């Protein structure tokens, strides 16, 4: 069997596994977010927190709670890194400098997990396990909470109530993320991922002389890193490191973990709005783009254009032998079409066009299937835009799921889709125009530009992967990428919740013969078209200067 | 104003308490429970899959290492010990750059693009070296025989594996340097070639450390 056939079989295996998980997980999540009952451990948490989980929040209250919780998260993580040098269990690592500590705190709270530090050389057990991994859980739970609030906005009428943030946060963590993580972590350990609290220690080598390792709670962090579409690696090499991702099976398992919640949330959505078909239409758009991007990636990576790859006889630079080109391509597409940013192979050493596919994947807004929660709300915003465009074409007031898309709604959706490109393009332009930032590039020419375009695309879209030749540990990059991550996460969340509030207040419009049927394949096609056109028009000039120039040279 | 300020303070307080409680659950209890189970049931894997040979630990079956001659005076990088099977290049492995207290293994890739001059030079040089080192009096390696993994660095820089093609390419050299029949070494490589998991996952590979341990046993015996 050839590598491409093996790649296709791995893709099919993933599709089957995701298909099997889709119904039970999607329905389970709908029950979790709709149930009136609290588990005993949840009651205990609410008691300790002092929050009332049964008060319904309108959108401004929901926004305030999200922002307060996230602000506290940034401050806590910042302080933890700043005092690391004085904490026990820090492996002797020094405290992190202010600019890098800000960047890392913003990064993990914004579900981005951009890393300007080297994991094995900077962060001890306390910061990794007690700080970074905690945000892996809760930032993912925040994303799901916001998505569910938007879904409630569509499902409810004549009320402004969107649910209770504290309850959504705690349930997402306790009932969804934690149980899957415990099981997943043990699967990873069984296959060879490490899980210990050993300090830095020496291990003998075949020809003498030691290798130095640091131990750590790697498997437990790895699983939530993928499941919560976070992506921040314990080690610098991320999921290419054999202790994080030891075998071809764990590689597929990690891709599965990345995709399972974002895809299944479309079922949750269908359940909660009372029409599973609406969820399938969204799922169809996500899956089509995901499969299409993988096919494109295989095409360019197996063709291995580029002088160095031609001499080598294959695009294996930055790729592990055990995964090869086929599986590495699936991982690269899955991690950039979600907000994950974990890597099992290094995107900077992909072919020119392959690198471009990873950048374009993020620039679509990470909605195919996107981050946990953020993928669903991002895709629903695009659905609103698609309905609006369709409405313009036939001259009818657009409606989606029985809600009118009026001036206020379309303004909010438009703000949502403008904010990220604005951040990406403005910051990239400044970084290129200023004298110092380009010194951080490892590669020159088009690829050097791509390193910087990639950095801000990754930051503002909350992905976290990199063309890692860029030395991002400078005050400029730490600060600006930190800001891009925070603004790229929380401004869209404000718009989404405002939209949810305004939808929830409406009375439903009855379906008539003139209503656009958003549960049909025609709409799925329209949605894909809208997405590609909006993103392509926004980013084409920048892509032409970077990956297209390199790939077509 | 006063009420909104106190409302904000109350909200931040609730956020802080929620964060602390969730930190205890996700940042303390969860990793401890997983570590407890892992150390109890799967201690070998949880501690890095170490392998021993001749009564001492010689590394991990998951982490690549180098098989070099001792560094000579005036050399920047040591020459490969051609008696042993050689791993992939690891040009991405950085020097200790952040922390000065320890000399840790820093994982990472080169991050060089396909049109990068360094990478073109590294690949070209590596290819020449592979052809030169592996050609023997009776066996000439052609440049087109050299597989891509033999001349490129991996993502982690710690790749424990090479492709079966690269292992087979080294057979004649290994046989000559260890005074073994070619057929015996060929069989050794075949025995240590792992196919795709379940027939379709990943790529076929040969673990270099395990192969060299077996080679050592063979040469001794």
UniProtKB/TrEMBL annotation, chain A:
The system is composed of three essential subunits: KdpA, KdpB and KdpC. GO terms for molecular function: P-type potassium transmembrane transporter activity; potassium ion binding. Pfam families: KdpA. The chain crosses the membrane at residues 61-80, 137-155, 176-198, 249-268, 280-299, 376-394, 415-434, 481-501, 522-542. This is Potassium-transporting ATPase potassium-binding subunit. Part of the high-affinity ATP-driven potassium transport (or Kdp) system, which catalyzes the hydrolysis of ATP coupled with the electrogenic transport of potassium into the cytoplasm. This subunit binds the extracellular potassium ions and delivers the ions to the membrane domain of KdpB through an intramembrane tunnel. It is found in: Cell membrane. It comes from the Bacteria.
From TrEMBL, chain B:
Pfam families: KdpC. The chain crosses the membrane at residues 12-33. The keyword Endoplasmic reticulum does not apply. Its main location: membrane. Keywords: ATP-binding, Cell membrane, Ion transport, Membrane, Nucleotide-binding, Potassium, Potassium transport, Transmembrane, Transmembrane helix, Transport. It is a single-pass membrane protein. GO terms for cellular component: plasma membrane. The keyword Iron does not apply. GO terms for molecular function: ATP binding; P-type potassium transmembrane transporter activity. It is found in: Cell membrane. Belongs to the KdpC family. NCBIfam families: kdpC, PRK13994.1. The system is composed of three essential subunits: KdpA, KdpB and KdpC. Part of the high-affinity ATP-driven potassium transport (or Kdp) system, which catalyzes the hydrolysis of ATP coupled with the electrogenic transport of potassium into the cytoplasm. This subunit acts as a catalytic chaperone that increases the ATP-binding affinity of the ATP-hydrolyzing subunit KdpB by the formation of a transient KdpB/KdpC/ATP ternary complex. This is Potassium-transporting ATPase KdpC subunit. The gene is kdpC.
